[in-house]
Amino acid sequence: MMEKKEKWTDEFGGVYTADKKKLLRVPNVKRYKIAEECEEVDKDAFEGCEILEGLYLPQSFSDKAAEDVFCIMPVSVDCLHHWTTPYVDDVYDTNEFWYDEEHTMTDEYGVKYANEGRRLISATKPELIGEEYYVPDGVLTICDGAFGFCGGVLLSAPRSIKVIGDYIFGEQSGKIVIRD
């Protein structure tokens, strides 16, 4: 019986080998920054990337690896950056519009999601939230100020959460509980 290989998933839904050396799947986002430790990209990693426009290659990529990516990336990518120094945080803000507005979805409570439901952007209709909101399994990121207009809300979040933005409740009170 083969052992199941462990994988690592970033906050945008990019899937890597456990050691982060190989990117297995690029998420369907407008722009994507490959993790700094990564050294190569799987030949099928871009499958399902319909809206990708920009790709940022890390310092850890060799010129050969960058050339390989160039050969397999979708034709929709019109911006390819190969960094020679480590990434600068302000270049890649996790709350920037790194998703396509046309590919967002809103649930029955008026909570807006992007990146195939992996990024919780904001509560657009706070009056529908009530006192508690159950963040669905599979969500990886809750953006800054997402529940800024939902005073006193209790968020029940899944263990899949990797990033919780700053001031998710704005200046309102609120509480987040990670469920088992």
Provide key terms for this protein.
4-stranded mixed β-sheet, mainly beta, 1 helix, 6% helix, 180 residues, 5-stranded mixed β-sheet
Shape: elongated
Unreliable stretches covering 5 or more consecutive residues: 88-92
Total number of strands = 15
Give the CA-CA distance, first to last residue.
Answer: 29 Å
Rg, alpha carbons: 18 Å
Report the mean per-residue pLDDT as an integer: 83
SSE sequence, one letter per element: EEEEEEHEEEEEEEEE
Question: What count of helical segments does DSSP give?
Answer: 1
- Strand % is 25-35%
Helix percent band: under 10%
Order of strands, widest sheet: 8-9-10-12-14
The oligomeric state of the chains shown is single chain
Structural class per helix/strand content?
mainly beta
Largest sheet: 5 strands, mixed
